[in-house]
């Protein structure tokens, strides 16, 4: 009986702390960056995708200049 009560208490507390709920209740609440400022967001996107696209060309240029 004690084990059953202990298990019931553990499972309900684990469900309560699981964190699967809606964190903020609005779109973008779970993103690691702010989407409020459109110009800052645009700069982040350009930097993120631009650096990934430019990297192979920079590496090839470095190898050709060696």
TrEMBL record:
Give UniProt keywords alphabetically. Membrane, Mitochondrion, Mitochondrion inner membrane, Transit peptide, Transmembrane, Transmembrane helix
**What cellular component terms from Gene Ontology apply here?**
mitochondrial inner membrane; respiratory chain complex IV
Write out the pathway annotation from the protein's UniProt entry.
Answer: Energy metabolism; oxidative phosphorylation
What residue intervals traverse the membrane? Answer: 41-60
For this protein, the record's SUPFAM superfamilies field holds: Mitochondrial cytochrome c oxidase subunit VIIc (aka VIIIa)
Q: Name one Pfam family in it.
A: COX7C
Q: Which InterPro entries match?
A: COX7C/Cox8, COX7C/Cox8_sf
**Gene Ontology annotations of biological process type:** mitochondrial electron transport, cytochrome c to oxygen
Task: Check the record and name the PANTHER family matching this protein.
Answer: CYTOCHROME C OXIDASE SUBUNIT 7C, MITOCHONDRIAL, CYTOCHROME C OXIDASE SUBUNIT VIIC
Instruction: Report what the protein is called.
Output: Cytochrome c oxidase subunit 7C, mitochondrial
């Amino acid at each position: 009986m004690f084990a059953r009560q202990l298990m019931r208490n553990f499972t309900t507390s684990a469900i309560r702390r699981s964190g699967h709920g809606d964190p903020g209740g609005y779109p973008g609440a779970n993103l690691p960056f702010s989407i409020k400022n459109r110009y800052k967001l645009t700069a982040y996107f350009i930097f993120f995708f631009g650096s990934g696209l430019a990297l192979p060309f920079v590496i090839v240029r470095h190898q050709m200049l060696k």
